[in-house]
Design a protein that fits this description.
This protein is mainly alpha-helical. Helix content is 47%, strand content 7%. The chain has helices spanning 31-41, 46-62, 73-85, 91-108, 115-118, 134-142, 146-158, 162-166, 200-220, 231-234, 269-282, 291-301, 327-331, 338-342, 346-349, 360-388; strands at 173-174, 179-182, 191-194, 249-255, 262-266, 310-312, 318-320. The strands form three sheets. The protein has a three-stranded antiparallel sheet, with no helix packed on it. Helix 3 packs antiparallel against helix 4.
Amino acid sequence: MSPTLLDPTMPRGALRPAVPNTLPALQAPRLLDQVRERVRYLHYSRRTEQAYVYWCKAFIRFHQLRHPRDMGAAEVETFLTWLADERQLASSTHKQALSALVFLYTKVLQVGLAWVDQLERPRVRRRLPVVLSRDEVTSIFLGMQGEHALLARLLYGTGLRISEALQLRVKDVDFSHQALIVREGKGGKDRVLMLPQSLAQPLRDQLGQARLLWAEDAAQQRGGVELPYALERKYPRASTSWAWFWVFPQATHSTDPRSGVVRRHHLYDQTFQRAFKRAVQAAGIAKPATPHTLRHYSESRNMPRQPCRRSRTADGKTGRTLGIFSPATFCGVTGDDRDSDIRGSAASSGRGCVPGVGSPAFRADAISWLRACLVERRNTIGARLRELA
């Protein structure tokens, strides 16, 4: 039996078996409940679920409560045109509505329509962010009190998003390492942020106030706090433990919209946004500043910069060192010869740099340099926060 010859012009991956792209059958009888069921099955965020349900409901109401299965490309184009012309929505909002309708037809109704891929998506344009001056930030902080003032300083000092700061739990605050651990951030990713030293004591005081509410709930045998995914079934007592309690808890209890359990939620984002808006108006700032503006300020002004240095290689060429937070910068690796140094050939070329990335010496020096940069940034942020306090 002669072996089968492969066609060299065959595209890569053509011999792989096709993966069936089938989704399980939906159990909910109503259409909007089916959208929620499919979103939760695919582990989309809660904000995505709310947005998709809103746009599907708006699409159905726009066409006089007709079922989407009875409509097609013409109705979708009419609805999107109405959003752009009559409602004058921004391109990002227009794109979100289109994504919701594509999800409705492809994931929920599972209708194989060729026109879905042919829909023209709006072009999203980049905009410059709103950045506040140091005096404006100071005036805003002076106009806020209590936990709202601490939350604003936390957004400014660490670069947290408002949802990430509100969802902080006691276990996510590490005072020994001066760090904050963000769980399930944007895109479902985790990351570690530095905690400025000037915010350590105010954050301890906030935890002391939160512990009083936790003790009150424990004495009254309340339902605890919400846990992600199925952790409440896996660890039945975790919801009432101090480690999982909110850093910024709400003063009153509320009903969970999904489970119907009455328990303590974290501070509402609308409450903090209203307090921030009142502080901006009281300061007389004529800018569309929001709590997210503090994050723009943190990223644009508080990041320590490593100046670019010119170095001469063995063959006489002048190269520029790599940018900030690169271990190669600490070792003096230039942009022209970084490939050879990564392969570990720096010693043979006579450039005097440490060996490749895999060597213990390189890792030790890189870790030391990164730690020095992190400490420098933490001290810089702490000094500016002390000036604003």
